[in-house]
Automatic annotation (TrEMBL):
Gene3D superfamilies: Winged helix-like DNA-binding domain superfamily/Winged helix DNA-binding domain (1.10.10.10)
Protein name: Regulatory protein, luxR family
Matching PANTHER family: DNA-BINDING TRANSCRIPTIONAL ACTIVATOR DEVR_DOSR
InterPro entries per record: Sig_transdc_resp-reg_C-effctor, Tscrpt_reg_LuxR_C, WH-like_DNA-bd_sf
A Pfam family recorded for this sequence: GerE
Species per Swiss-Prot/TrEMBL record: Aliiruegeria lutimaris
Residue span, HTH luxR-type domain: 23-88
Keyword match Transcription: yes
GO biological process annotation, one example: regulation of DNA-templated transcription
Keyword annotations from UniProtKB, A to Z: DNA-binding, Transcription, Transcription regulation
C-alpha cells in the first residue's frame, strides 16, 4: 500500500471515530478553492505543498482551511478532511 493510500485509509478510519453525525448531516457546499485544499490535504500533502500546488501563500491556504472547517463544523483540519471524505465532497 503506497503512502497516499495509507493516508486516505487512516483519514477514513479516523472519520468514523470523529463524526458522530454520520450520513444524517446535511450536505455542505465548499467553494472550489476550499474543496481543492481539502483534496490536497486528503492526499497527504503538507500545507506548504498544497499552497505551492495552488500557487497561493500559506496564509491564504489557512484562510481556506478555516472556512472549510467552519462549514464542516470540524474540530480541526484532520476532522474537516475526514468529514469532507465521509460526505463524498472529496472524490479520488
Amino acid at each position: 500500500m503506497n503512502r497516499n493510500h495509507f493516508v486516505k485509509h487512516e483519514f477514513n478510519e479516523r472519520a468514523f471515530e470523529f463524526d458522530h453525525q454520520g450520513d444524517s448531516a446535511p450536505t455542505t457546499m465548499l467553494s472550489p478553492r476550499e474543496l481543492a485544499v481539502m483534496t490536497y490535504l486528503a492526499k497527504g500533502m503538507t500545507r506548504a505543498q498544497a499552497a505551492h500546488e495552488m500557487d497561493i501563500s500559506e496564509h491564504t491556504l489557512r484562510v481556506y482551511i478555516e472556512a472549510a472547517r467552519h462549514k464542516l463544523d470540524a474540530l480541526n483540519t484532520t476532522h474537516a478532511v475526514a468529514r469532507a471524505l465521509i460526505r463524498g465532497l472529496i472524490i479520488d
